Amino acid sequence: MTHARGALTIAAGAAALLLSACGSSTDGVAKPGTTTSAETTTTAASATASTAASATSGSSTAPVPAGDVTKPGTKLKVGERAVVPFKYGTQKTGTIAITVNEIEEGANADLVKFGDKAKGITPVYIRVTVENVGGTDLAHSSLSLRALGPDGKGTGVIISGDTDQCESETAGRDFTTVGAKYETCVLQGVREGTKAGAASYNNGDGYDKSPLVWEN
Question: Which of 103, 104, 116, 182 sees the fewest Cβ atoms within 10 Å?
Answer without folding.
Answer: 116
